[in-house]
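During the no-cost extension, the postdoctoral fellow (Dr. R.K.) reprocessed legacy sequence entries with the updated structure-token encoder. One reprocessed record is reproduced below for audit purposes.
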Amino acid sequence: MANRRNILIGTGAAAVVAAAGAGWYFLGGRTETASAVEGALPAPAPGAQFDVARLMAPAGDVKDHPLGANDARVVMIEYLSPTCPHCKAFALDVYPQIKAEYIDTNKIQFIPRPFMRNVLDAVVFMLAEAAGEAKYHDVLDTFFKTQAQWAASDKPADAMFIVAQQLGFTRESYDAALTNQTLYQGLEKLRDQALNEFKLQGTPTFYVNGKMLDGEKSLEALRAEIDPLLA
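Re-encoded structure tokens follow.
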């Protein structure tokens, strides 16, 4: 992975890499249930409570893409990283059941929120935004499903473009998506807010009606948090 510092993801990614500076590498290592992040402040107490209104006001110009009812009694926010193996495990193994039980039935509103640990994450998030609201979640889902193909590749530039082509991107639209410096800066602001205001330690991190749940969670663990709030 060391040679990622010298890789450009296509000509259009030059703006992303320039904005990232020396950030073309993975930030932090992995823990048992979460991917750690660089710059995290001391951990809050387990189950720390945060103001829901503040959590619903993401910093910067990056807008949320919520799923489920806007008036749901329970709001679950997940800070996720496309390169995080634990986020992938949640997305593929747990989220489908959460969607069926709680989101599709309008019992909760679910907000997947970007957390950029590295430039590969930035590329995925920028492609998702460029794809538009109707395909935003499909882009994230596809990159999670193919994570093994691109996140550990010696040539992530080529590997990520192949995935993007499956989603309908051409070389021109792919490169254009990665020149949005305003969006990149917004992703940085989201990351800084998560670290400094919401005390995020790693990905994934969930906030259920403001209660912080860090690390990979099973379906049963999330049910135990959600169901009492719906009673």
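Confidence is low (pLDDT under 50) at residues 1-15, 17-33. Residues 2-230 form a domain with the Glutaredoxin fold (CATH 3.40.30.10). The remaining legacy entries will be reprocessed before the final report is submitted.
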